[in-house]
Automatic annotation (TrEMBL):
Keywords: Hydrolase. Residues 29-246 form the AB hydrolase-1 domain. This is Alpha/beta hydrolase. The lineage of its organism: Bacteria, Bacillati, Actinomycetota, Actinomycetes, Frankiales. Pfam families: Abhydrolase_6. It comes from the Bacteria.
């Protein structure tokens, strides 16, 4: 396990060197996972090793308070997360622009990072980013509050005590502690909405991926309309869990995005066989069924 101190916080990080041979031109990819019920493993096993095989230098890390990174009492505002990421790149000695790939809250963070640290970013891949011009902080705080209530439900407690696998139970208990023992929910209230003017001035190429059946699909068109160089991919039949549901296509899509963008994007073929999803990271990502009742939270 590798650890670095970034922005004064101990972060768990794993770096996968290109397996296609070292090169000064190898894309450096930084992967930013979602919030609460997520950690480094979701990207490491789904896309990280695959992109390393394809010739990328890949950096995966646990966000503050998640996985094996330090769980501080406070410091969960979006601006703190951006400072953590900038500090991580500094600590690793990364001195050229990186390709940032984010999922859910990680995608929102990636977009904000691209706006604030444009010179450090080569491209952005945003998988299901919660994106609003107004009320983003309130929406994200509301989503976390919903998760906290659900996590304390008696049926969920029974599931954790009797039915959860070790990995899923460990992740769920960590999520409970994160929500109950830190200021993460209230810190989300400080999340500023995105500026239409800033997005219109963004000169970083953006790949945005949404599921057709996602609860936040209504935000996709607005993002694509505002960002000048935005390629929008909407995957039919899929939900907010695109990373888990369409892993094989995302692998193909990202190779196109990072290495062969001058050609049309690869066609999407619906994936009925999900055997590519390894049990370890699936059980860590997916909450128990009771947490999915009703409207799925926009932060994942």
């Amino acid at each position: 396990m590798a650890e670095v101190i970034a922005n004064g916080v101990r972060l768990h990080v794993q770096r996968l060197e290109s397996r296609a041979g070292a090169s000064a031109d190898s894309p450096i990819v930084v992967m930013v996972h979602g919030m609460v019920m997520d950690n480094i493993s979701s990207f490491y096993f789904s896309l990280g090793t695959n992109l390393a095989d394809a010739g990328c230098d890949v950096i995966c890390y646990d966000l503050r308070g998640h996985g094996r990174s330090e769980r501080t009492r406070g410091g969960y505002r979006l601006v703190d997360s951006m400072a953590d990421l900038a500090g991580l790149l500094d600590a690793l000695g990364v001195d050229r622009p990186v390709h940032v790939i984010g999922n859910s809250y990680g995608a929102t963070l990636a977009l904000a990072f691209g706006l604030e640290f444009t010179a450090r970013v080569a491209s952005l891949t945003l998988i299901e980013p919660p994106f609003l011009i107004e009320g983003l902080g309130k929406e994200m705080a509301r989503s976390l509050s919903q998760i906290l209530v659900a996590m304390n439900d008696d049926e969920v407690e029974q599931w954790l005590a009797n039915g959860a696998g070790r990995a899923a139970g460990r992740t769920a208990r960590a999520a409970q502690r994160l929500l109950a023992e830190t200021t993460i929910a209230t810190d989300m209230l400080a999340t500023p909405p995105f500026s239409a003017e800033a997005l219109a001035a963004l000169r970083v190429p953006v790949l945005a991926v949404y599921g057709e059946n996602s609860d936040i699909i209504g935000q996709a068109a607005g993002l694509a309309a505002l960002v000048p160089d935005c390629s929008l991919i909407v995957l039919e039949h899929h939900t907010h869990m695109v990373l888990r549901e369409a892993t094989a296509y995302l692998r193909t899509l990202l190779k196109w995005w990072l290495f062969d963008r001058r050609t049309p994007p690869p066609p999407y073929v619906r994936e009925d066989d999900r055997s590519f999803a390894t049990p370890d990271w699936v059980t860590q990502m997916v909450p128990p069924p009771d947490l999915n009742a009703g409207r799925r939270p926009a932060v994942g």
